[in-house]
Every structure is written in structure tokens, then in C-alpha cells.
Design brief:
The complex is a heterodimer of chains A (643) and B (285). Chain A is α/β, with parallel strands linked by helices and 643 residues long. Chain A has helices at 12-61, 63-68, 71-82, 131-138, 154-204, 218-289, 294-324, 337-354, 376-392, 428-431, 443-449, 455-465, 502-506, 523-536, 546-555, 572-586, 602-611, 623-634; strands at residues 87-94, 99-104, 114-123, 142-152, 333-336, 358-362, 370-374, 398-408, 412-421, 469-474, 480-492, 515-519, 539-543, 560-564, 593-597, 615-618. In chain A, strand 1 and strand 2 form a beta hairpin. By secondary structure, chain B is an alpha/beta fold. The chains are: A alpha/beta (643), B alpha/beta (285).
């Protein structure tokens, strides 16, 4: 049976048949029982009346026989009576109850099937024409005997069978007629309903052009008209809906195209901005390492700082664009929250202390030994933004990151991270615009403190993406409090060994070893990377594209490959795939490949990983970032012997 | 009485026997309707040694004709021979004699006084006895009127069957018992029920007229049985053989008794069976 046509219970046709038939059958049955019962009673009464009548007749006619002891006469009376087929025997008794004569049939009859009728035999008065005397004599006639008739009930039973048969046959006929009529009527009613039901089913299946054209009468005709009107309405609505859907599809395609164009633009912008930025930043970092006068060194640091700001601006714009485009993905993992918070505070401690501010972490003990599930990168990004702003807009006093944690059930934690500052505060009427993109309290703020105005907008969006809220309470001149509220899945874990702080790792900048193949088509970036790597202590071989890199890989064993992604001749992804193929064919151990790409989008990172690369470093990169990425592959214990 | 009568008859026959044996055979011819009674009757005559008889087929060769029943009796009269009617009505014999027929008869029925004697034995307290007499009855009104016994007889003359019922309803209640003579017209099977039912309803017992009536419901009756008739016929034949003339007409001398014990019981009569009744009758004066 098709879906949607499953009948629940009996169909209307069957119900109508039952409706028409059951009452009629009940009435018929009752009538049949009543009539049959009455006829049974009649037959029984008839038999009893006949028996009584016969007994009385015999009694009245056997007066002489009984009085005279005339057995012949009595026998004649009995035989006369025995002509009645049901009569089984006749017994005459005298006045004392003695049997005068028994006349019965030869065949044995079960006495339980015999009905006995008794009638007294009386001495009749002699009629002499005097009614009064006759009446007086009648009043107390002498009983001179009794006649007993045994009548077989077989005839009654046979008669009852006949009655039953005679009743059942018409009843059966009536039932058949009733069935046929019920069937016919039910079909007359159910067929149009079935037709209309089919019509509705067709409509439900989406064929709105169907119309009912059956010749119907009465309410069913009205129903068919209504269905036709409904079909017309649905057809019109469907047409309008299709038009709207087409428009929406068109708009969606346009939006998708625009989104793709935006993504492409972002990617291009990311690449085109980061590539030269990488050159600028790299060169400045190299320049910073050179011997310079105090003045030159000051200029170099200023240039580096400005490049850093520019990079932050670019990153903010790209993050916001990714969020807006829905391309920002979270990567939730279980991690220990407290070290992350401590690291965030530590990151800005130098900046705060240089401004004479305190920067502290309050209630840190509440999070000891707790691991939460979230995206640590994005959470760090939000907190860095809040702490950065707080330090940036506070001239006196300090900043405190206050932790409040409340356990909800066994595995959920309501976490509140409030960043209090004693800064300039925010007027209440401006607080509503605070989280809007490209908004700062006023242009003077931007001029005074810098920033694009995207930071808080990004922070709030990220907070929401993390499943929380970001709110602010502030009073102008009274400091501000930004509160990040999150409900996180958590679990307790024994304290892990303390991770090596990043700055310690960074300090090992010159302790890398090994042979690195640098694949970069941009000469400036190639020079920057080469110099940075050489300053770290590694040996660098360069290639200008993937094809050239593969040739060099076949000639020498490298400890690591720094591979640009977008290159002429053969890009980095294709070259990596070919390299992995070549390694599998030769049974060689895979060489670590670190992607160097000016595309900072997550998709780019994923594509690199899928192609077989081991790590990803977005341009422009700082020396420390490069060191951190390469450390796993170029430490002395990892360096291949004999190189 | 019957036993006594038969004894006398046998003694008389024994006395006559030697002389009879020495005499010639008496040729007789029997006229009777076909039937078992005829056969039995002839067989009994043939078996009788006294008187010496010879039964001839041709009535003209017979010296004596014996006719059984009124019809044959009337038929035999035309043969102009000495004729003995057996079980014939008294009126038929009288009529024939009026026509100077040389004939006598053994009447159907029994003598009135015999029946009355039996009645007296069975109903010693009875006083009033009604006797229905019709034109064809064995008893005549004179016989009834001439009765000199202790019973008070009342003659109920009935001319036809049609008035029989009314006469009974009118008068029966006045009697202690009802006595019926043999009468082919009044007391046949058609009237038996009327008479008997009426008598029962009025609780008046009926006596007579014959065995069939006793079977039908009459209390008791003396009647001329086949053997009685044969014996009486032989007496007549012996008389004719010896005297060449016919003995006078009369009833059988030794009638047979019939009793309906059921009816007798219902009337609480003294004698319920034939033997005791016969003994009582023989013992009665």
C-alpha cells in the first residue's frame, strides 16, 4: 500500500455496509425470533388444544363404554381417536382409577416425547327438555372415569422445524437482499467519496491541474466543486510560489556568486596584501638584526611596529569578512582553560607594566584541574581583544581578568570571564554601538588609540559562535567591564606537565639544525625566508617552483621543505602530492612539508593538509612563528645524521 | 334351573331311546340362511342319535321342515309341509297359524318369568320393574299384565323406535329396573346405546333381552343359545317323530345366563359372575 493511503480502520464503504446491514439484521433477527417463538407457541398451543379437545371428545363419547364396560365400544373409540397420527396411546380408567382399556401403537415411543392429556369421563344427565333441571344436573356431574391420551411431540418438533425452516428461508433471502442493497448503497456513496479522495490525493501529490469531473449530486457535488476551487487556488498559489522560488533561487545564485566573489576577493586580497607584507616584515626583521645606529634602530622598530599594526588590521578585516561570509569554522577540543588564561594575561603583561598598570588574573584557583571543550584559538582571540582594549584604554589603575565558574550538573560549567579596567569608560548612549563593526566611540579615539573598530564586533561574533554572550557595563570615566559568559562541557583531569612557554621556545630561535628546501617564486620573500632560516642555523636550498623542488628532492635528502602554495609552473599543492607519490613509490620516509602561503583562510590550510603537507604558516610571518613551526623537524634530535 | 331342566330332558330322552331306535328315520329338511350358525345347527342335528333323523336335500321328500329365523320360516310356509320354526318371532308364528299353516315354533328369546326370576335373584330389593313391549316383542302385553309374582311390573308399550327414547326418559326413573324382551325392531344394535345410556344416566339397570345386549351393557340376561335351540329342536323333533304332530310353540326351556360383570359391579349387585348367579338361580324357588 502506498504511503499516505493507509486506511485507518474499516473503509467508509464497509462502514456504510455495516451501518445499513447491522440494524436491519438485528431487526430481522428480533422479528424472526419473535415470530418463530410465537409460531412455536401457536404450534404448541395447537397441539395441546388438539390433545385436550380429543381427550374431551373421547371422554364424552366413552361415557357409555365406561359405564357399560363395553370394551368394544371403548376400543372403537380409541381406534377412532388413534386415526390422529400423533396419538400414541389411549387409556381408559374407571372411576377408581383402574385401567379399563389401553390402546396404543406398536412402535415404542419415548415417553419423554409424549404429552399426556387427561380428561374426566362424567355421567351425563338425561335431557328431558327442562333446561333448569338440566343445568342443575350439570353443576355436579359424577366422574365415572378418565381418559388419558398420549400424544407424540414428534409432530410438534417436526412442525417447529418446519416453522424454523419456513422462517429461516425468507430470512436468508432477506439477508441476501439486504446485503445486496447495503452493498449497492454503500457503493453508491463510497464510490464518489473514493473518487474525491483520489482527487485530493492527486492534489496532495502536487498535481494541481487535476479537476473533478464526475457527475455527482447533492453535497458530494458541492464537495467536488469545493475541491476544484481548492485545486484552482492551489494551482495559483503554486504558480506564485514557483515564481517566488525561482526569484529566490536566482537571488540565491546571485548571492552565492557574490559570496564566492567576495571569498575570492578576500583570498586574493589576503594573498596580495600578505605577500608584500611578508617581504616588508621580513626585511624589517632582517634589518633589525643588522648593525644600525640608534636612530636607524629606532626607525626600524617603528617600521616593525607599524607593520605589526597593519598586519593586525588586515587580520581583523579578514576575520570579520570570514565571519560575515560564514566561513569561520570552530575547532572545539578539550583543553585546560587556566593555562590559556594565564598565557593571555602574560601576553599583555609587558604592555601593561610598560604603562604602569597592573594586570592580574583573579580567582584562578576555580579552574584548577578543569578541562573544558571549546575552540581555544577563538577563545584566546576574544580574550586577547578584550585585554588588549582594556590595557589600551586604561591610563591609570589596571586591568583584572576575573574568573567565575559555576558547575551545572556533572559535566557542564557556567563560566564567566570578566575583564575589568579602570580606563576612560564608555558613555551609556554609545554602548549599544560598541559591538557594531567599524564603530568607535569617536574618531578621536581611533586617532588616539588606533584600531579599525572591528575588534569588539569580531569578539562578540566569536563569543556567540562559542555559544556564549559578550556584554559590557561601563560608565564614562568609571572604567568598563566586558563579560564573556559561556556554558562549557567540562571534565576534571589531573594536572598535566607544564607546557613550555612560548617565549622560552622563541628564545631557542637560533638552535635549529638541518637542510631545508625553500620553494618560493617571489624573490623578495625567498630572500627573507632564506635569511631568516640561515640566521636560525639551518642550511637552505631554494627552488622557484614545485617542479624544480621535486627535482632537487630527488637529488638530495632534505630535513624539511618550506613550500609556497601559489607558484608558476607547478604550485605547492601539486608538488606536495607528487612528492608524496614519489616517496610512496620509493618507499621513502616522508619529508616534512610546511606550507608558506599568503592565503590565511582556513580553507587554504585544509587544502594543504589534504595535499599531504605537515604544517601551515601564513604570510607574513614573524621569526618566532617560523621557528615554532620548524622546531619539530629541525631540532638536533630530528636532524638526519650526516647532513 | 337350567341344569335341572337339562337333566329332566336327558332322562326323558333316555326313556324314549329304545322305542326310538326301533322306529324309522325321520326325513327332515333344514332351511336356514348361509352362515356359521346354520352349519353348527345342522352339524348338531346330524350328531344327535335321538330321534333317528335323516336330512334330505329335497324339501318335498322331507316329512318335517325346520326353518331357522323368520325369513326362512315364512319361505318354508309355501312348501306346505309340517314346519318347525326355530328362533322365530312369536308374531310370525302366530301369523302363520292364522293362515292355517301346519307349523309351530321355538320363539326367539326366553320366557318372561325366567328373566324375572333372574332379576329377582340379582336385585332382591327391586320392586318396580318396567317392561317394554312392542308389536314384535317376544312377550305380549298380556303376558306382562298376567304376571302374578311379587314384582310390580309396569308395561311400557312402545310402538316404534322413534318414541323409545322419549318413553324411556319419561318413565325409566319410576322403576327399579327395566326388562327388555327379544324384539328385532325395538332392541337392535341401533337402539342399544340409547337404552343403555339412558338407563345408566338414570342409574336404572337393564335386564335382557339377549347376550348381545349384555355385552353392550345390559346387566344380565337369559338367552337362547345355539345349544339351547338345538336341544329344544331335538325335543320338538322327538315329539313329532313319535306323534306325527308338532309340539306347541314356546321358548326354550333351558336358557343360558349372560352377565355383564362390569355393569353389575357398577350397580353394586350381589352376583358378579355367571357361576354364582346360576347357582343362586338354581337354588331359588
Amino acid at each position: 500500500m502506498r504511503k499516505g493511503t493507509v486506511k485507518k480502520g474499516a473503509g467508509i464503504r464497509k462502514q456504510l455496509q455495516l451501518l445499513g446491514l447491522v440494524p436491519a439484521l438485528i431487526m430481522l433477527l428480533l422479528l424472526l425470533v419473535a415470530l418463530t417463538w410465537q409460531r412455536f407457541e401457536d404450534a404448541d398451543r395447537e397441539l395441546r388444544e388438539l390433545g385436550s379437545y380429543l381427550a374431551q371428545q373421547i371422554a364424552s363419547s366413552s361415557e357409555y363404554g365406561v359405564l357399560a364396560g363395553n370394551y368394544n365400544d371403548l376400543r372403537r373409540q380409541a381406534r377412532l381417536a388413534m386415526q390422529q397420527a400423533d396419538l400414541q396411546y389411549v387409556v381408559f380408567h374407571d372411576g377408581e382409577g383402574k385401567v379399563l382399556l389401553y390402546e396404543g401403537r406398536d412402535q415404542k415411543q419415548d415417553h419423554s416425547d409424549v404429552l399426556e392429556f387427561h380428561s374426566g369421563i362424567y355421567r351425563q344427565p338425561v335431557s328431558d327438555g327442562d333446561p333448569l333441571q338440566e343445568k342443575a344436573a350439570d353443576s355436579n356431574p359424577e366422574r365415572i372415569g378418565e381418559v388419558v391420551l398420549g400424544m407424540s411431540s414428534a409432530r410438534l418438533l417436526a412442525r417447529q422445524k418446519e416453522i424454523l425452516l419456513a422462517s429461516l428461508l425468507p430470512a436468508l433471502f432477506a439477508i441476501i437482499i439486504g446485503l445486496w442493497i447495503a452493498h449497492y448503497l454503500a457503493r453508491q456513496i463510497a464510490s464518489p467519496l473514493g473518487y474525491l479522495s483520489g482527487l485530493l490525493r492527486t492534489l496532495r501529490n502536487g498535481d494541481y491541474q487535476v479537476r473533478g469531473s464526475s457527475y455527482l449530486r447533492g453535497e458530494l457535488a458541492e464537495l467536488q466543486d469545493d475541491i476544484n476551487e481548492l485545486a484552482g487556488s492551489l494551482e495559483g498559489a503554486h504558480r506564485e510560489q514557483q515564481t517566488a522560488i525561482d526569484k529566490l533561487r536566482h537571488a540565491h545564485r546571485q548571492a552565492q556568486t557574490a559570496s564566492q566573489a567576495k571569498s575570492d576577493f578576500l583570498a586574493m586580497m589576503s594573498h596580495e596584501l600578505r605577500t608584500p607584507m611578508n617581504g616588508v616584515l621580513g626585511m624589517l626583521q632582517l634589518l633589525e638584526e643588522t648593525a644600525q645606529s640608534e636612530e636607524q634602530n629606532e626607525y626600524t622598530r617603528a617600521a616593525l611596529e607599524s607593520t605589526g599594526h597593519l598586519l593586525d588590521v588586515i587580520n581583523d578585516i579578514l576575520d570579520f569578512s570570514r565571519i560575515e561570509a560564514g566561513r569561520m569554522d570552530l575547532d572545539p577540543v578539550f583543553f585546560e582553560l587556566l593555562p590559556l588564561l594565564e598565557n593571555c594575561v602574560a601576553t599583555f603583561r609587558y604592555m601593561a607594566e610598560s604603562k604602569g598598570l597592573y594586570l592580574r588574573l583573579d580567582n584562578a584557583g576555580m579552574l584548577a584541574g578543569k578541562m573544558v571543550r571549546s575552540d581555544p584559538t577563538r577563545l584566546r582571540q576574544v580574550l586577547n581583544n578584550l585585554i588588549s582594549n582594556a590595557v589600551k584604554f586604561t591610563q591609570e589603575g589596571g586591568v583584572a581578568l576575573e574568573i567565575t565558574a559555576e558547575q551545572i550538573r556533572d559535566d557542564w560549567l557556567d563560566l564567566t570571564l570578566a575583564v575589568h579596567d579602570t580606563g576612560i569608560g564608555i558613555p551609556e548612549h554609545r554602548q549599544s554601538d560598541l559591538f557594531k563593526a567599524f564603530s568607535q566611540i569617536d574618531s578621536s579615539t581611533s586617532r588616539r588609540f588606533g584600531g579599525t573598530g572591528l575588534g569588539l564586533a569580531i569578539a562578540r561574533r566569536l563569543s556567540e559562535m562559542l555559544g556564549g554572550t559578550l556584554t559590557v557595563s561601563s560608565a564614562e570615566g568609571g572604567g568598563s567591564t566586558f563579560t564573556l559568559s559561556l556554558r562549557l562541557l567540562y571534565r576534571s583531569q589531573a594536572p598535566a606537565p607544564l607546557a613550555v612557554p612560548a617565549h622560552e621556545e622563541d628564545r631557542r630561535g637560533g638552535l635549529l639544525f638541518g637542510l631545508v628546501l625553500l620553494v618560493e617564486d617571489n624573490e623578495v620573500n625567498q630572500l627573507v625566508a632564506r635569511r631568516l632560516l640561515e640566521h636560525m642555523g639551518v642550511t637552505v636550498v631554494t627552488a622557484r617552483n614545485g617542479h624544480e623542488a621535486l627535482e632537487k628532492v630527488r637529488q638530495r635528502d632534505f630535513d624539511c621543505i618550506l613550500m609556497d602554495v601559489q607558484m608558476p609552473v607547478m604550485d605547492g599543492l601539486e608538488a606536495t602530492r607528487a612528492l608524496r607519490q614519489w616517496e610512496r613509490e620509493r618507499g621513502r620516509a616522508p619529508i616534512p612539508v610546511v606550507a608558506l602561503t599568503a592565503n590565511a583562510m582556513d580553507e587554504e590550510r585544509d587544502r594543504c593538509m589534504v595535499a599531504g603537507m605537515n604544517a601551515h604558516l601564513a604570510k607574513p610571518f614573524r621569526r618566532q612563528q617560523l621557528t615554532r613551526v620548524l622546531s619539530p623537524y629541525l631540532t638536533p634530535e630530528h636532524a638526519q645524521p650526516g647532513r | 334351573m337350567n341344569r335341572q331342566g337339562r337333566l329332566i330332558l336327558l332322562v326323558w330322552l333316555a326313556w324314549l331311546a329304545p322305542s326310538l331306535c326301533a322306529q324309522t328315520l325321520l326325513p327332515i329338511h333344514v332351511l336356514a340362511d348361509e352362515g356359521p350358525f346354520r352349519d353348527s345347527f345342522i352339524q348338531a342335528l346330524d350328531a344327535a342319535a335321538i330321534p333317528p333323523l335323516t336330512r334330505v336335500a329335497d324339501p318335498q321328500q322331507a316329512e318335517l321342515l325346520i326353518a331357522i329365523g323368520d325369513r326362512q320360516f315364512r319361505r318354508a310356509q309355501k312348501l306346505d309341509k309340517p314346519l318347525l320354526g326355530v328362533y322365530v318371532s312369536r308374531s310370525a308364528v302366530a301369523l302363520a297359524q292364522r293362515k292355517r299353516c301346519q307349523c309351530q315354533g321355538i320363539w326367539a328369546g326366553v320366557a318372561l318369568h325366567d328373566q324375572l326370576a333372574m332379576l329377582e335373584v340379582m336385585m332382591p330389593l327391586a320392586r318396580r320393574v318396567g317392561v317394554i313391549v312392542g308389536p314384535e316383542s317376544a312377550w305380549t302385553p298380556g303376558m306382562v299384565q298376567d304376571y302374578q309374582g311379587r314384582l310390580g311390573l309396569t308395561l311400557l308399550p312402545v310402538s316404534s323406535v322413534e318414541v323409545l327414547g322419549d318413553r324411556l326418559r319419561e318413565r325409566l326413573a319410576d322403576f327399579d329396573a327395566l326388562l327388555l324382551p327379544v324384539d328385532g325392531q325395538l332392541f337392535g344394535p341401533d337402539t342399544a346405546k340409547l337404552i343403555l345410556l339412558t338407563s345408566y344416566r338414570l342409574r336404572r339397570p337393564v335386564f335382557g333381552p339377549d347376550q348381545a345386549y349384555v355385552q353392550a351393557g345390559s346387566v344380565a340376561s337369559l338367552y337362547a343359545s345355539g345349544a339351547d335351540l338345538v336341544a329344544e329342536t331335538l325335543v320338538h323333533l322327538q315329539f313329532f317323530h313319535s306323534s306325527r304332530r308338532l309340539r306347541r310353540s314356546g321358548f326354550v326351556h333351558t336358557p343360558t345366563i349372560a352377565v355383564n360383570e362390569h355393569v353389575a359391579n357398577s350397580f353394586d349387585m350381589v352376583f358378579h359372575d355367571i357361576e354364582s348367579l346360576r347357582d343362586a338361580m338354581e337354588a331359588s324357588p
